[in-house]
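REQUEST FORM: STRUCTURE PREDICTION
Request ID: SP-0412
Submitted by: Lab K.M.
Chain count: 1
Length (residues): 325
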Amino acid sequence: MRSIWLLSFLLAVVVLATPGQAQVPQFEDLTRQFDYDAKVPLEVQQVGQERRGAVTVIDLTYTSPRGGRVPAYLVVPPGRGPFAAILFGHWMMEGSPLKNRGEFLEEAVVLARSGAVSLLIDAPYVRPGFEKEKDELRLATQSAEVSRQQLIDFRRGIDLLTARPDIDPKRIAYIGHSFDAHVGGILSGVEKRIGSFGLMAGGFADEEYVFDPENAEMRKLRERIGENQIRDYFRMYAWDDPIHFVGHSRPAAVLLQFGRQDKAITEKMARRYYELFAEPKQIGFYDSGHALDAEARRDRTQWLVKRLSLKPIDKAALARIPELK
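STATUS: Completed
RESULT:
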């Protein structure tokens, strides 16, 4: 979960910060951290293909501007379109067999029958050849760069989708869970080609989380490391804190979803995150943990149907999707 990652990240990287650093950069300067050259060829390579009734699931890779190749599923409906498009970003829950692009695959197949093309990508953490740094200092830097690479790879994914003649560029959505909800929060301020953001069980104010007076774990961390050093750290890595971006989410619509049993994100925190986003927005709470549940899935897909002008969802097929573990 994001909170666990944040704690280990701070413990490792805060030594980089030195007192007296510059104030948080302007928003325009922060967004430049996610620039890339859109003219570089995507070099899409198809790995495999599977039919799910009338729906086609294509296994492919494309070039990442930050190095290596992005593994992805492209889920395509029958017909010529124009289709809406959805980007899906998975969680990173340790021990889950679906901490990869497979998390939303069944959901994407159901949505394809309603007229949406979906692109589901693997985060750098789970891509072939990724090696987690063993040195704490290098691990901290690697963690921040993974977040940045994932965001840029999603922007490149939009390039891939909008290059297709069957895609309606005015109907693009993003769905992200946990780690990729964090990425999506930043993306909402950076990428204006996306008109709808569904963000699940995410954290969107890292500095506020660490300085929360009600968080005993974070209070001990502040006492151990020193508040000034931690503040300086957040200035160094301001581009990786969604709080600087979510207020710029307009004109996109935002749906936030949280589980009332999620120990990492209290309802008070969730409502604070909701306040940070620009209108239009809405929030949903569910009797579930960090994985959320079938009710959240139903609400999310119905929201997508409305936002993307899709055909009605096959509710029976949606109900057959297993709960996420």
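NOTES: Residues 12-22 have pLDDT under 50 and may be disordered.
Reviewed by: T.R.
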